[in-house]
Structure formats: C-alpha cells, structure tokens
Amino acid sequence: MSELRGATDIGDFLVSARSFDEYRAMFALTDADLRGRALDCPGGGASFTAAARVRGADAFAVDPVYASPPRELVARLDAELARGSAWATANAERYVWGFHGDPAAHARLRAESAAAFARHLAEHPGHHVAAALPDLPFGDGAFDLVLSSHLLFTYADRLDARFHAAALREMARVGAEVRVYPLVDQAGRALPDLLASVVAELGDAGVRAEVEDVPYEFQRGARSMLRLGPVPPRTGVRGAGAPAAGGRMPA
Q: What is the CB-side half-sphere exposure of residue 198 using CA atoms within 13 A?
C-alpha cells in the first residue's frame, strides 16, 4: 500500500467498508428497490450484501479483491480501514459530518460494517464473486439493480473515459437499472466533460442516463448519482414509435 500522497489523492484504490445505511442514503434506496436481485459492484468490504439479504433481497457482491483467501482479505480490510480513517481525519474539512457525527464515529461505523462483511463472507462465500469491470461473469439482465460506489468518477485520475463507458455499459447489460455514486473525483471536483462523454456514449448504445439528487452528502459536493436504464419508447408524429435498440450491458 502506498502512503497518503498529497492533497488530492488517497493513493491506491481503497477497499472500503460502507454500511447498509450509507448505501440506502447514497443510492436513495427504498424498500421496493430491495425486493429483487441486486449486485454491489465493486463490493469491497461493505456490509450491503449481508444486510440486504437479511431484508429479503437476493443480493451479491463482485470485486477483484474477493480472489484473495478470506483470512488475507479480512487482514487487508483492517489495514484499509486504518488508511481510510487516517485520510478522512487528515482531510476533515472536505467532508460533511452530519451523517456520521465526527471522524471517530465514522471510523466505528466502518469497522462495524467490515465486521459484518467478514462474518457474511465466512458463512456465505458464494455471495461474493471475484471479478472486475469491465468484464463480469453474469448473464444479460441477471439483476434488477446494480449499485456502484466510489470507483467510477472517484478515480478519474487513473480510469479514463473509455473505461468509464465500458464499465457502465457492462453494468447496464447485467442490470435492469444501475445507480452510480458519487459523480465527483477524490478532490470533490465535478467532472462535466467526463460525465457528458459517457452519457452520450450510453445514449448511442440505447441506455438512458439521468443525474438525480440523493439525500446524502459526505464528501463535499457529492450530492448526486447517475441512474441508468433502457431508453423508453419514442412517440412519433403518427403515434407510438419503436423502442431504441438496447445496448450491451454486463456486470
């Protein structure tokens, strides 16, 4: 693992452990959203899958880190919790602390979430699939909902527009609906050119992309998610038109 390296960059991709409640707020999830098949992509050490399954969802997580033996993954997650907490504490002015309270409470919540993840991983390893965007091992339309947090846009300094478009098309292939949060980078900067580019490419592929506000802001400025779904039928001058061609979407 690299050191925290500078004012805008946390370093290596962080394996985080966000809680179910954070997911509900980040993605504006309702009870109805959790009644089908859901995929957390990438899942990291989040407790979403475990908690969603308790609530009746047929939930799974996918992440390349799941290729590691469970004991090694849990040990790595402990180190990542410390790294993430150190970053948040050192850069506290970049965050809105209303949801968590303060850096210490934030660290406790993430530790609790990581512990829930570790228990679920030990008891139900099949719910955690080792794979990485933009090539995921699921069939077309395998999920009702795909959630993706803190990878796309967050790491725009190292993931280019081509990767973003391919990853979004892949998630749209496997999910009837996709929600992506946040839409700012690590420094909290908006990315209008990148967002416009991927939305245009998704539209060409038959995928509707809309930006929606969410009832959550931890990183300052991160108040919106990207929601993907099929383009609805268009109504022509003479009546009902034909649906736009569907785009390929994996998970």
A: 28
pLDDT tens-place string over residues 200-220: 999 999 999 999 999 999 999
The pLDDT tens digits for 57-111 are 999 999 999 999 999 999 999 999 999 999 999 999 999 999 999 999 999 999 9
Q: CA-to-CA distance for 249 and 251, rounded, in angstroms?
A: 7
CATH 3.40.50.150 fits 20-232, yes or no: yes
CA dihedral 89, 91, 95, 101 (to 10 degrees): 20
> CB under 8 Å to 195, separation ≥6 — which residues?
153, 183, 211, 226
Can you tell me the distance from the alpha carbon of 153 to that of 161, in angstroms, rounded to the nearest whole number? 9
Measured CA to CA, the distance from residue 224 to residue 192 in angstroms comes to 13
Q: What single string gives the DSSP state of each residue in 178-200? A: EEEE--B-TT--B-HHHHHHHHH
Is the pLDDT reported for residue 44 higher than 60? yes
**Mean of the per-residue pLDDT values of the chain:** 89
> Rounded to an integer, what distance in angstroms lies between the CA atom of residue 80 and that of residue 244?
43
- The answer to whether the CB of 5 falls within 8 A of the CB of 111 is no
Q: What residues does 228 pair with on adjacent strands?
A: 178, 209
**CA dihedral (132, 115, 3, 26) positive or negative:** positive
Give the tens place of pLDDT for each residue, 6-20: 445 788 999 999 999
Ranges of each domain in the chain: 20-232
Q: How many other CB atoms are found less than 10 A from the CB of residue 57?
A: 21
